[in-house]
User: What shape does this take?
Amino acid sequence: MFGELCVKCKGRLWCGLPKCPILESAKNTIPKLKIYSDSLFGPSPPSVFVGRFGYPNVYAGPLISENDKIFRSTSELYGKSLSEILTSTSSLVRASKRVNVRRVDKLVEKSQEIAMSAKSVDTEIWIEKFYGGASIDDFFHPTGPRVEPRKIDIVDNPSIPKRVDMVVEERLKAEIAIRELYKLGYNVDYLQRIMASGVLGKDKKLVPTRWSITAVDDILFKGLIREVKRFDTIDKVEYYSENFMGNEFHIFLIPGTWEYEMLESWLKGAIYSPEQDIVAEDYEPYEGRRDYADNITGAYYAARLAIVENLKNRRRQAKALVYREITPEYKLPLGVWVIRESVRHALLKTPLYFENLESALKYAEEKAHIKNWYKGSKILYNLKHQKRLDDFIPHI
Amino acid sequence: MRLKMDIKDLKEITNLLLTLVSEAKFEVNGDGLSVKAVDPAHVAMIVINVSRDAFLEFDTEEEELGVDLDKVRDILKLASSGDIVEISKDGNKLTFLIGNLTRSMPLIDTSALSVPKVPNLVLPAKVVIPLKEFEHGIKAAESISDNITLRITPTEFEMYTQGDEDEARLNIPRDMLKDLSCEEPVKSMYPVDYLVKLVKAIDSADSVTIYMGTDYPIKLEFEVTGGKGKAEYLLAPRIEGE
Assistant: This one.
């Protein structure tokens, strides 16, 4: 198609075509769900989806499962096979209507109640129009067909936790609310969907799902890194690896003050990269970054959160270098949860220890498809070339 | 403790420190105020000494103040350029008074703030260069590479940077410099982002004095608080090659 552009864009239509040809052909591999009746009764896992096209007038509404194979969070999908994942996700019917992000109509109100619920919510929708198809996205998990609802009824009572109700009523700033609920044990998926549903903050509005996923990863990271920067550094290079759905991760934690870098290789034949191997990179120094990580996008933020969670729990500081190789086995983008969960799982393992980064890289290179993938790494460059002032203080 | 100063001076000191740290330990005594800070990666360091003459009022015992600079930045946003700020310490609280506005903050435990060791460097070459020219050299390099190379020879001062395809170079001959002393040519490469932030924060100086060696830290000296204070900035080099 468009070579390197496709890897950077990942379905954002930078090519100017009305639909992404790569995603369209990938969609054909998802089982097609048909609904023949004019109503649908089923549980919402709970889940909502807010589109981004046409912003501020976007498609929004809840997802309702057509079978009972619901999952409460994407972490439950980790380790499952592709067909199991698709059975759970592509049976989620997207009930949505176009709505302005600031307008709270009946559909939005119901979506908000569903989003805030801690348990699945039995829901009934009367279908105005069935659109069919499926939806895949680099950020959110796949979903089934879209329907335009005439009416939505929540059959159950959604169980909305008191604390959540309070932060919504108090109009607590979204960042503060998200960090507080996270500390109380609410997971990233939950926080992401309440943010998308537009219940958080002073100036409440719907937030496209894609944006809310990265926003939550970023907000949680920023809260945790403040603490991590006060911890002592690790003292040996640690190497972790993990492999899920054709995504091969090589993770290096390196002694020193916080810095973060992620590199990705899209191997020839992987999604977005049919014709050639493509390497992408994003980096941030100790103080953080101001602009969006445009080369790696959402995966950058998802991996970074998983890293900082690990450092926070161990009360240690380090530099982190994440390398992800996307093999042709990854045919269908499943969402950035794949990256977040893979890195979390990798870091649960016992690492291999190395005296320096170069020997760890040499070891990992044997297992990677692309040789010398790290030659553009800023962290490696700095370690090799940047002196510290202490190097010029004579030791007694 | 009670200090009164121009808001512009407080702003300059704060901005310079914020290029490296978000918290700092200030020391005040009969002579004035001094502060040292090193960035978390130990790549750059700044030492600022401000004479008591820079203050409109300077009434203090010897004190150590651990200050959250992000909070000071927030206060500075509330002031306008001609304002005077009065800073006083009461127990563990630091209070800023600007016009009718009072803003206080808790002091940070100074034992948690490390005071850097200042390396004693022998730097054989020296130039004095107008700040404007120095700024030009850095800005030209910024968009090309992460690195900038500085060179002093007996006849000129040079700043240059090399990207994959692009290149920028600033040469100033000896007779256009206020001062140049150099016997053997010296050359070192530095991370440009540090220098970009530094020149943005320098406010009252119109020239900088540069001390250098080969593959050695650079020392930049410049005036602060309208000439009544002095800052010294050290930056570790990047070494080329494998």
About this structure: Chain B is about 20% helix and 45% strand.
